[in-house]
Amino acid sequence: MDRAMSTPASTPLKPVGLLVRTSDRSFYVFNAVLSAAALAFLAYILIIRRGAGGADLRFMPPLNAALNATAATLLVAGWIAIKRRAIVAHKYLMVSAFVASSLFLVGYLAYHFVHGDTKYQGTGPLRAVYFAVLISHIVLSAGIVPLALTSFYFAYKANFAKHARVARVTLPLWLYVSVTGVLIYFMLRGSPPAVP
């Protein structure tokens, strides 16, 4: 009797696990498609389109730099919050950092869609430093969207073990990309002659 009653009770667990795996699979597909689309659009803007005029968005670069600086500040604050076990504060700070970085991405794409790429005019050793920073910034930024979304997804699913593992990789990369974004802005503005 006990054995007969235990069998039905154990069967509902299998579909639940299947649903979780299917949900994870759907997220990974969505994440891959969204990340690939963002990279493809960025490549189109910078390599193929190269700017075609339109609205004057020359006010955007300082705003984008401010958004990057804001994201970096929020990331550090979010890291400090989780170290202090302030989970609610950590959640709001990291979501705010994601919003700031998302707004930056929209502004960055809009600016370069209209104005194209901005050329660095400096010479000498600083030119080598600029391109070293720029290349590392571009390469690492390609991973921020999928990594950040994956980190948020695991937090949303309350899978905090996986969230922590992904976040240990995501945070330093995200912080580096945000800080170097600000650095690149100032290096471009400091190169003679001034460029828009």
Automatic annotation (TrEMBL):
The chain crosses the membrane at residues 27-47, 59-80, 92-111, 131-154, 166-188. This is DUF420 domain-containing protein. Keywords: Membrane, Transmembrane, Transmembrane helix.
